[in-house]
Design a protein that fits this description.
Order of helices and strands: EHEHHEEHHEHEH
Strand order of the largest sheet: 3-2-1-4-5-6
Mean pLDDT: 94
CATH topology: Rossmann fold
Shape: globular
Number of domains: 1
CATH superfamily: Flavin prenyltransferase-like
Number of helices: 7
Structural class: alpha/beta
Number of strands: 6
Distance between the termini: 29 Å
């Protein structure tokens, strides 16, 4: 069982976070959820469901879901001694990305990402913005040079997705494989499409 931190910000793309959380829990992993206030607002707007309501429905899965207050700087996640396996910020706003890249640890989510970098744990940033400015690119480069991974949620065309949900599944499957979690959502190039 892996312990994964999932951070949700106010960027569009809440379906990505919901899908990732559900699939991690289905596979029996522990998810430590941190959401910004704007992340909660966008989640409710895009999915017609509050994060709290979604949280309650996650009891059906074998994995463990733990919610953390983004203002709780005394959380175990704020310490380098925490035993997390990876941090995924999905979707990640450019504001959050900029704060992480510049070590502005003014919330639990930013501090947890900072801890991942300094402890050399996987940090995946699912950046949601287009077009991308030179400032965004500079922050992405800074994060990449520090050991983070910027992974925009791009469509995998060779898998021939027919729906948004299928595109999301494929992306989330690829992300999970990237952090060492095998799954059946993403087919690699050259594998059977049947």
């Amino acid at each position: 069982m892996k312990k994964i931190v999932v951070g949700i910000t106010g960027a569009s793309g809440s379906i990505l976070a919901k899908n990732l959380i559900i699939n991690l829990l289905r596979l029996g992993h522990e998810v430590n959820l941190i959401s910004t206030d704007k992340g909660k607002e966008v989640f409710k707007f895009e999915l017609d469901e509050s994060i709290d309501s979604f949280f309650k429905n996650c009891d059906l899965f074998p994995g463990k879901l733990i919610s953390h207050d983004n203002n709780d700087m005394f959380s175990k996640l704020a310490s380098g001694s925490s035993d997390i396996d990876a941090v995924v910020v999905i979707p990640c706003s450019m504001s959050t990305l900029g704060k992480i890249a510049n070590c502005i640890s003014d919330s639990l989510l930013i501090r947890t990402a900072d801890v991942a970098l300094k402890e050399r744990k996987p940090l995946i940033i699912v950046a949601r913005e287009t077009p991308i400015s030179s400032i965004h690119l500079e922050n992405m480069l800074k994060l990449t040079n520090a050991g983070g991974v910027v992974m925009p949620p791009l469509v995998s065309y060779y898998n021939k997705p027919e729906t948004i949900e299928e595109s999301v599944d494929i992306f989330v499957g690829r992300l999970m494989r990237f952090i060492g979690i095998e799954n059946q959502l993403h087919r690699t190039w050259g594998s059977s499409n049947e």
